[in-house]
Amino acid sequence: MTLTVLMNAGPWLSVPPPGYGGIENVVATLVPELRRLGVRVVLASVESSTLPVDEKIAVFPDGQFHALQRPYNQVCGVSQAHLAGVVRALHRRDDIDLVHDHVEAVGLATMAAMGPDAPPALHTLHWDLAKHPELYGGLDGGDRVRVNGVSASQLARAPRALREHSVGHVHLSTPLAVDADRRPATPKGDHVVILGRINPGKGQDLGARLAHEVGFPLVLAGPVGPYHRPEDLAAAGDEARQNPDVRFFHEHVAPYVDGDRVRWVGTVAGRERDDLVASARASLFPLRWEEPGGTAVVESLSLGTPVVATARGCLPELIEHGRTGLLTADEEELGDLVLAAGLLEPDECRREAAARFTPARMAERYVELYDRVRHGATVP
Ligand code: UDP
């Protein structure tokens, strides 16, 4: 029997995403592999998503990422409108065997409220939830609602109510991991890169300070709040500071950005992003939060770039200290580790990615979990 999965990627970005987009990248990586395994996929996203699927459900014409700078109730409005579209579709049809939800804990509660007609659901936890149990207050959809983590450490830290609904964890993947071990190596430059949202948890302020103190060129790539390009942020004016990430950037990162030792290049995408990471001496993750899944960490390995990071969240699961990267509990030590990262072998990183983090592996694991969800199992 063919399995039909409704994959909810949310209303924020198209799939695949134009640049930044952790969750959307995961969905874009997972869906083609699931379809190769014979799963039918109905994608709930925005109309402009170009990922080939069996069917699409969309409320909004394109990604609503820009709405994230609006007041909170309007952000919720976008979310609710998207969810209402998903629930309407579920009411209309009886061919959906399972909902795989990536975004909305609220969505799971809504489905639970649909009663026995709702299909079973798997919600992938993408965040560090130890501090936000309230997000999952509504997760009492009985045996039909299950969750999975994106690392063992994320699940271990999750509130008990979530762990009791867990079917296990699946490490994130990237298409870059396919045959990563066979691709010719990219010549290394001198720079170090931090790829990710500019955010206190990702620690760009610490990385930038160490770049000046220890003396290495640092490229910061990623959006600041909803702003993807430095010129857009510059044009946004003072109102933009209502966004906490914009405030963080102005107050704690920008003072180090001198266009020479430390540069902020905005969001990078596609080939430009891959070249920037592949040619870096190291990828730096000066984390101040418990990184839940670390797509950018896996991408760095796939591109043959060793990872230097604080040993937080999933980092010790993804990185073998001394072989594919260097980890420390002492953030002041990161600068010295960056200098030592040149001694690590890019080939080891690429071998690791090709062995552990391929899209095919991620999809096979999800099919296993779908089976558990449909049979009401849990794996504490
Ligand atoms: N990303 C990108 N361009 C950027 C910054 C980030 O394409 O300028 C991508 C990055 O390659 C990764 C994703 O955005 O695929 C970030 O995912 P991650 O899990 O590392 O971080 P989070 O989901 O916490 O933002």
What is this structure's SSE topology?
Elements: E1 4-8, H1 22-36, E2 40-45, E3 55-58, H2 72-92, E4 98-101, H3 105-113, E5 121-124, E6 145-149, H4 152-157, H5 160-163, E7 166-169, E8 192-195, H6 204-215, E9 218-221, H7 230-236, H8 244-253, E10 262-266, H9 270-278, E11 282-285, H10 295-302, E12 307-310, H11 315-318, E13 325-328, H12 334-340, H13 346-356, H14 359-374
Parallel strand pairs: 1-2, 1-4, 2-3, 4-5, 5-6, 6-7, 8-9, 8-11, 9-10, 11-12, 12-13
Helix pairs in contact: 1-14, 10-13
The structure holds uridine-5'-diphosphate.
Question: How would you concisely characterize the structure shown here?
Answer:
The protein has about 375 residues and is an alpha/beta fold. It has helices at about 20-35, 70-90, 105-115, 150-155, 160-165, 205-215, 230-235, 245-255, 270-280, 295-300, 315-320, 335-340, 345-355, 360-375; strands at about 5-10, 40-45, 55-60, 100, 120-125, 145-150, 165-170, 190-195, 220, 260-265, 280-285, 305-310, 325-330.
